User: Which sequence fits this backbone?
């Protein structure tokens, strides 16, 4: 399934922001970094007349860079390495399209393991648009409050890189199980009514139907893009090469699950919270 139609529809809205700088004030990472000289775009879908390229371009973006100058940084890119798997993540990613999307900054990474056999399944990185003017993150907030505010108010990317060959159905089952668990808890704590729970079940079922019964290659990144909130439009969750679902609750909670109490990667959550400790905007 091509992403041309859903991404075109989402990106051509007047609410999209164009060409903001890519610095991340107050953000730092204690993880190991290493320079990378190759610049290789990750294609999301086929070429289209409206969208120039549906993919994530991996590139370091410096404090004085903008969207148009990203390609010039190809020879000076940096990556951050997951110490548990040696899988490297770019410090920044962006979704190049006819309507530019600002660079997203890595805010944490970690490994996902199957606890009862301690097998490393994949490394996962969380990115966010930290330059969004709608972000208001004072230093005195807790790290949990900071990342919750960020996920709810700006664009994010979850990047999953399998450590071994696996299948899309494994990801599908994990995603739908996590969302259904959060849906039940949202009903129990009064966040959602019974009618809203039924309504949110539709995009979850659509999400499940996006995934093919086909393998995922080892060390091949799989990106999930969460659009920034837009007035009078639901947030969308775009799965590279597969399609998208639109629902404020489903899209936001998909990402929040990675920093929740029952997160799939405690290492990712710990990394994010450490990096949020001194972040302010």
Assistant:
């Amino acid at each position: 399934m091509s992403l041309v139609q859903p991404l075109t529809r989402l990106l051509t809205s007047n609410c999209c922001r164009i060409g903001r700088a890519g610095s991340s004030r107050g953000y730092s990472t204690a993880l190991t970094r290493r320079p990378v000289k190759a610049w290789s775009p990750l294609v999301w879908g086929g070429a289209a007349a409206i969208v120039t390229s549906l993919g994530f371009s991996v590139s370091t973006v410096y404090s004085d860079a903008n969207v148009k100058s990203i390609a010039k940084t190809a020879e000076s890119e940096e990556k951050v390495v997951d110490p548990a798997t040696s899988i490297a993540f770019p410090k920044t990613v962006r979704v190049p399209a006819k309507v530019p999307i600002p660079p997203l900054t890595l805010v944490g990474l970690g490994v996902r393991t199957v606890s009862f056999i301690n097998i490393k399944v994949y490394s996962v990185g969380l990115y966010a648009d930290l330059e969004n003017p709608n972000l208001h993150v004072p230093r005195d907030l807790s790290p949990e409050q900071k990342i919750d505010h960020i996920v709810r108010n700006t664009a994010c990317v979850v990047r999953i890189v399998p450590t071994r060959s696996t299948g899309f159905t494994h990801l599908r089952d994990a995603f739908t199980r996590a969302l259904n668990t959060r849906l039940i808890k949202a009903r129990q704590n009064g966040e959602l009514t019974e009618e809203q729970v039924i309504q949110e079940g539709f995009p979850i079922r659509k999400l499940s139907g996006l995934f093919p019964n086909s393998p995922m290659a080892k060390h091949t990144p799989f990106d999930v893009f969460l659009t920034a909130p837009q007035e009078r439009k639901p947030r969308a969750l775009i799965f590279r090469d597969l399609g998208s679902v639109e629902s404020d609750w489903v899209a936001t909670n998909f990402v929040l699950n990675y920093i929740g109490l029952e997160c799939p990667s405690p290492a990712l959550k710990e990394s994010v919270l450490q990096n949020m400790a001194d972040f302010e905007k």
